[in-house]
Every structure is written in C-alpha cells, then in structure tokens.
Amino acid sequence: MDVSTREQWMVIVDETISAQPRVARQLLDMIRGLSAITDGFSVDQMQHALQTATRAERDGADEEVIVASLLHDVGKLISVPNHPKIAAEILRAYVRPEVYAMVAFHQDFQGRYYYEHLGMDPNLRDQHRDQPWYELAERFADHYDQKAFDPDYSSETLEHFEPMVTRVFARAKSL
Fold first, then answer.
1. Which of 29, 48, 85, 128 has the smallest number of CB atoms closer than 10 Å to its CB?
2. How many CB atoms within 10 Å of residue 29?
3. Of 136, 137, 158, 140, residue with least CA distance to 148
4. Average of pLDDT values for 148-169?
5. pLDDT tens, 2-23?
6. Is the dihedral of CA 77, 167, 163, 19 positive or negative?
7. How many other CB atoms are there within 10 angstroms of residue 85's CB atom?
C-alpha cells in the first residue's frame, strides 16, 4: 500500500463501488442462515427476524428501521453474547446514528422481559433514558422485537424485504 498510486486507488474505489450489491446478497444469505438457530425459542431466528421486520413495517417504520429490525440478531451467527454490537457495526455505515444505537443497545431494552430470571437488572434500559434514540429503541424492543416469537404470526417473506435491504446497503453513508 505504501507504494500505491492515486490511479491504482481510483481503480480500487471504482471496483468497490460496483461490487456493493454483494453486501446485500451476503446479508440476505446470513438471514437465511439464522433458520438453523432456535436456541430454545418457539421459532427459529430467521422467523424471528422476519416477524420483527414485519411488525416494524406494519407499524409504519421507515426503511432503515425495517432493515435494521430484519438484521438486528444476525450477529448470533457469530456470537450470541456480542450479537447486538456485531449487527450494529454491520449497519453503522448505512443507517442514521439512532438506528445504529437501536440495534447496538437492544439487549439492554429486551432485558426488561427476562433479566430478572437470570439474576440481572431488568431496568438496564434506564441508563439510556437521556439519549436521543431512547424512544426508538424502546419502540423497537417493546413493539417489534420481544413480540416476534409467535409461531402463528403471518410474516412477510425474506423476498419481500430484499429490495429494502438492497436499497439500504447500496451505498455507505459514512466510512
């Protein structure tokens, strides 16, 4: 890299931009991979992702929130304890900061529903109360995510969300 030229870097940039559609394709494949993970829940993690995104869409959420809802648990393919931060980092360059935070801290908000059973503080969300994204994260946790384990819920298909994923990941907002 220390001997590269501007012209070489312009070729790299052009090729990187033209290859951007692969990001959406890879993420859609990752969501499909969530179908192999149940971890004791009543639906697999792909169905959970579809339910969460469907609930967001039916509630009138914008496209970034819908796509983030679809991808919020994709980090479970790598590490369950670290999954919120993994998913948030995948999204970071493509969504506005409050959507990033919604995903990054969603476990703190979800804890209200089960942390007491694990001897943990169910009110961890309170530490974020003064953040500008608090209401978005609260709506996500309370209305979309925690309700999305219903084996009888009629979700949209992954193909339904594919154009949204493609649009959101078409170009990074930041690097």
1. 29
2. 9
3. 140
4. 97
5. 888 999 999 988 888 887 889 9
6. negative
7. 15
Domains of the chain are 6-168 (1.10.3210.10)
CB 48: neighbour CB atoms within 10 A? 25
From the list 65, 39, 42, the residue with the least C-alpha distance to 52 is: 65
| 104 alpha carbon, distance to own chain's centre | 9
Q: Which residues contact 53 (CB under 8 A, 6 or more apart)?
A: 66, 67, 69, 70, 144, 155, 156, 161
- DSSP code of residue 144: I
Cα 80 to Cα 15, 31, 37, 95, 140, distances in angstroms: 34, 15, 11, 22, 19
